[in-house]
Amino acid sequence: MSMANKKSALLLSVAAVVVSVTSGWIFQSMHEDEPIVSGAGVTARRMLSEFEGNLKGSPGDTPVFEIGSDKAGGTITILGGTHPQEIAGMMAAVLLVENARATQGKLVVVPQSNRSGFTHTDPMEAYLHSYEVDTPGGKRWFRVGMRLANPVHQWPDPDIFIHYPSREGMVGHETRNLNRNHPGKKEGWLVGRVSYALTQLAKTSSLIFDLHEAQPEYPVINKLVSHENAFEVSATAQAMLQSRRIPMGLEKSPKNLHGLSHREFGDHAKALAILAESANPAMGRFRGRTSEELVVGGKDANYVRAAQLGRLFVRFDEQGWPLNVRVARHLAAIEEVINAYNELNPDKPVIIENMPKYRDVVEKGLGPFLKPPPKA
Ligand SMILES: [Zn+2]
């Protein structure tokens, strides 16, 4: 071996060590849990595996926060993180966990419904792994995940995913999409089991509300999608949001599209089932660089242009759609859905106090409503 060859062999070995150490570090850091702090209103913190034992110890098991009261009433369940890159849903859930209190009935919050999806990002999309929010007590960090569960946890995908029990055929990777798996399956693949456990949770709920986001070029945006069993509640909530100048569309859950929370929790768990979507430009095809500025700030020059060309389903100007505005919309929707539910179910209401208000979250951002970072 010549001297030059020896030198390049050595350099290559060093490079290989650097790459494996860094990728090992990235892999490990993707499996570190971000802190979610129980606020004063949290009366119990369980794991989802308490609703379906065979999830215990699996990467699909996830915390379930209960905000209970001494007075009997209904139970309202909020799901965030069904799709872990739709971060406004998870952050709205976190703000409830860290602030809300119940004086009657119970609020149940699952901030990371597809927890496996929080351990990776979409390949080839150059996503951030995490982002930070300034709070009065210091910086908090949160994850950007991916729509699908991590293939490290569930693999391989079939060519065609056959939904259970409808037997509707879908593209193979949807087998890792939690919001195509409902009502789930007790035995079998991980995401099916997570869904099954959430369906058991839905069976203990009067109403279940699943928080999502979508790209600004997608037609179902700033909308509620409602099972027919929840249409009175969602239409009342929509009217109230309209009167507060927080426009929100309303769509009926299609009867023949399966696996979706707003269809299957209504059909199989008999809970009133609603889903909400806000506009997230970091998920869209027109976006520029996927920076923290875009993920948290929600600003993107390409989307301003797309709006001027009439290509979007929401307004999009230089203000963009910042994360706190999207979270505020979810919180306002939750507040009005609870109000409407209480009006229509006066015998078993759910009375919640100290939810961060829409106007405050828009004006002050998320920081003032987050606990200080836990001490290591
Ligand atoms: Zn979604």
Properties at a glance:
single chain, 376 residues, alpha/beta, Aminopeptidase, 8-stranded mixed sheet, 10 helices, 18% strand, globular, binds zinc ion
Percent helix, as a range, is: 25-40%
Averaging pLDDT over every residue, what do you get? 95
Beta strand count? 14
Indicate the CATH topology.
Aminopeptidase
Q: What is the CATH C-level name?
A: Alpha Beta
Count of DSSP H/I helices:
10
The dominant shape is: globular
What structural class do helix, strand and pairing data support?
Answer: alpha/beta
Q: Compute the number of structural domains.
A: 1
Biggest sheet architecture: 8 strands, mixed
* Low-pLDDT regions: none
Q: What's the alpha carbon Rg, rounded to whole Å? A: 21 Å
Query: Strand portion, in percent?
Result: 15-25%
Strand order of the largest sheet: 1-2-5-3-10-13-11-12
